[in-house]
Amino acid sequence: MKENIKSMLPGEIEKVVKDLGQPAFRAKQIFKWLHSGVKSFDEMTNIPKALKEEFDSRYYITYPTVSRKLVSQIDGTVKYLWRLRDGNAIESVIMQYEHGNTICISSQVGCRMGCAFCASTLGGKVRDLEASEIVDQVIFGEKDSGLKISNIVLMGIGEPLDNFDNVMRFLQLINDKDGMNIGMRHISLSTCGLVEKIDKLADYNLQLTLSISLHAPDDKTRAKIMPVNKSWGVDTLLEHCYRYFKKTGRRISFEYAMIDGVNDTPYHANLLAEKLSKMEGHVNLIPLNHVDESPLEPSKPENMKKFIAILKRHNINVTVRRKLGSDINASCGQLRRESGLN
Ligand code: SAH
Fold first, then answer.
1. Which of 12, 22, 25, 113 measures 20 to 30 Å from 198, CA to CA?
2. Are 307 and 285 in contact (CB under 8 A)?
């Protein structure tokens, strides 16, 4: 059974190289080739043939193929449906902002969190992505689109903290100066709130931005739309967020999808403001995006305005997420693992 070389850290490749009696610098060369997007060892032109053959007999190199590519006519957003090595499919989206291009990437094939408003969870989770498969979305997204990627958001299909070890490995790989070299401050990780994993992440003390999909300030509302709330209620989640903030010094971003008649009343706004008052956090409102299978509707503009006014009155930092790629179903919560569902 061959192993996945592109999920290996530079030090791990170096150990293999040394065990083969080769100089350490070969590891760095191989790592660079892998993260520049080569699809075979054969393409590594500065590596001796015998060493390439030895590696080829032990390892495989992951790369996705473009199963479908859609470009938004409105704002140039690009959505990829990638086919993986085993035939599974995932999506990534590249968004062009004034401050640079951001790629939204998937962490799992499907998702098992079951949020009522999200298309990614329909059909459940098939498997975790390997670290290299998460990296590949950035490497090949940049390559295919010709758009230099400066920011990454782990906000595509899947729950990143439900694939903790591979996501941590991804972060190390993508951050490496011989790889894509993307700084932690240019990476956001979004979670529906797996509190034990939030604690674990805090211990790594990374400079990334943690986003929490909160979507409601009280258990009754949140449990209705997010099954994860049955394991950990809002107050427990917020306690762990506070601990995260204290430990890392990094302000948390709270995502809040505005759903008509569900979580968008003045009651919800006031309670949200109260609960976030000691957090120094930031609220990112997302007008609900349409998902065919769901009866939920976006909030009415006037209700959204009222909601924002209440938060502002309580000095809560609030922004509204810009909707990009709406003509190609590339907005939050619209990514799917199968093309047939689109
Ligand atoms: N599983 C992670 C990563 C997904 S990030 C998480 O839950 O955070 C995608 C963001 O879009 C999350 O905040 C998610 O709750 C939100 N979202 C999902 N479906 C949506 C929809 N239909 N409209 C707007 N936002 C949605």
1. 12
2. yes
Domain housing 79: 65-338
- The residue that leads in pLDDT, 303 or 341, is 303
Tell whether 197 and 301 lie within a shared domain.
Answer: yes
Q: In this model, does residue 280 exceed pLDDT 90?
A: no
Does the Cβ of 191 fall within 6 Å of ligand 1?
yes
The C-alpha atoms of residue 328 and residue 110 are separated, in whole angstroms, by 19
Query: Within this chain, do residues 117 and 12 fall inside the same structural domain, yes or no?
Result: no
- Asked if residue 106 has pLDDT above 80, the reply is yes
- The ligand 1 atom nearest the CA atom of 215: 15
As annotated, the active-site residues are 91, 332
Tokens of 18: 């040394």
Q: Mean of the pLDDT values across residues 192-203?
A: 98
Beta strands in the chain (DSSP E): 3-4, 59-60, 65-71, 78-83, 89-97, 100-104, 108-110, 125-128, 149-154, 187-191, 209-213, 253-258, 282-287, 317-320
* pTM of the predicted protein model: 0.97
DSSP state string for 29-88: HHHHHHHHT-SSGGG-TTS-HHHHHHHHHHEE----EEEEEEE-TTT--EEEEEEPTTS-
Radius of gyration over every alpha carbon of the chain, rounded to an integer in angstroms: 21
Q: Which atom of ligand 1 is nearest to the CA of 118?
A: 19
Q: Across-strand partners of 187?
A: 152
Tell me how far the alpha carbon of residue 144 lies from the centroid of ligand 1, in angstroms: 26
Mean pLDDT over the full length of the chain? 96
Q: Which tokens is 165 given?
A: 């070890």
- Render pLDDT for 211-251 as a digit per residue (tens, 0 to 9): 999 999 999 999 999 999 999 999 999 999 999 999 999 99
CATH number at residue 10: 1.10.150.530
Looking at the fold, whether 10 and 78 belong to one and the same domain comes out as no
Q: How many whole angstroms from 5 Cα to the centroid of ligand 1?
A: 31
Q: Are 13 and 123 found together in one domain?
A: no
Question: What gap in Å lies between CA 169 and CA 138, rounded to an integer?
Answer: 15
